[in-house]
Amino acid sequence: MTRERIEKLLRDLQAGRLSKTAALERLQTLPYEDLGFASLDHHRALRQGFPEVIFCEGKTRAQVVAIARGLLAKGGPLLATRVTADVARAFKKLDRRAQYHEAARAVVVHRKKPALAGDILIVTAGTADVPVAEEARVTAEAMGSRVETIFDVGVAGIHRVLGRHERIRRARVLIVVAGMDGVLPSVVGGLVDRPVIAVPTSRGYGANFGGLAALLTMLNSCAAGVGVMNIDNGFGAGVLAHRINMLGERQGARG
Questions:
Q1: Domain locations in the chain as residue ranges
Q2: CATH-assigned architecture of domain 119-254
Q3: Coil, strand or helix: which one is 181?
């Protein structure tokens, strides 16, 4: 339930286009709808600017479909993460607008809205880090940000990222995704005066410890202005980058 939809409901009620009974039926699921196995937070879009996102991992196909149906009934956009191909087909049956982004393992049902003027740039150390980067990209784009990507520019060939220095400096906010030694965010953080969101991935050999080594490297970054997400958390990075982007937009409008 968005502010615009609440305002429309009140206008329709005032104008007599909607009965009190119908208005009460629409309001009865506020602030949440109890499905027994899930409580749908229909006020999240009003509080945070985007509806509740479905994390599909660990849920049954039937549970995911029921949650999606409840969220789509409110008319907003929908984003689901950690989606298998089988569950993606269920989304398609539920709503033909559903788009499955295989690399990101995400499904999006878009609402038409203009993208923010400022942009997010996502940089990966290696091609193996692309799935996490794609989750971040799909998330930020679904929420309304413009996103560009630069893949495979890790420190094993540092000239590759230095060759993109000008583009990197133009971004409003950067997401830097890296596994292995996790050094790339420190390098990028030392080149820019913009927020850098570092995302460690679980890609790497044994001593990488499933991304723990990269995480610790990023937490110990000597570059200023680098914040760190959890291992493989592309979704969290996309949300945070979008919110930073929104702040920049508001500041620009005030200026």
A1: 31-109, 119-254
A2: 3-Layer(aba) Sandwich (3.40)
A3: coil
Cβ atoms of 86 and 61 within 8 Å: the answer is yes
Q: Are 177 and 185 in contact (CB under 8 A)?
A: no
What single-letter amino acid sits at 180?
M
Positive or negative CA dihedral for 204, 208, 212, 213? Answer: negative
> How far apart, in whole angstroms, are the C-alpha atoms of residue 215 and residue 201?
8
Could you give the 3-state DSSP secondary structure of residue 13?
helix
Q: What is the pTM of this model?
A: 0.84
**H-assigned helices in the chain:** 3-15, 20-27, 44-48, 61-72, 85-94, 130-143, 159-162, 165-170, 184-189, 212-219, 234-254
What span, in angstroms and rounded, lies between the C-alpha atoms of 141 and 228?
20
Asked if the bond preceding 31 is cis, omega within 30° of 0, the reply is: yes
pLDDT tens for 173-228 read: 999 999 999 999 999 999 999 999 999 999 999 988 999 999 999 999 999 999 99
Residue 248 exposure: Cα atoms within 13 Å on the Cβ side: 18
DSSP-derived pairing of the beta strands 32-34 and 226-228: unpaired
CA 239, CA 107: separation in Å to the nearest integer?
Answer: 15
Residue type, 128: A
Q: Please give, one letter per residue, the 3-state secondary structure of 34-87.
A: ECCCCEEECCHHHHHCCCCCEECCCCCHHHHHHHHHHHHCCCCCEEEECCCHHH
Tokens 């290696």 appear where? Answer: 126
Return the H-helix or E-strand segment holding 195.
Answer: none
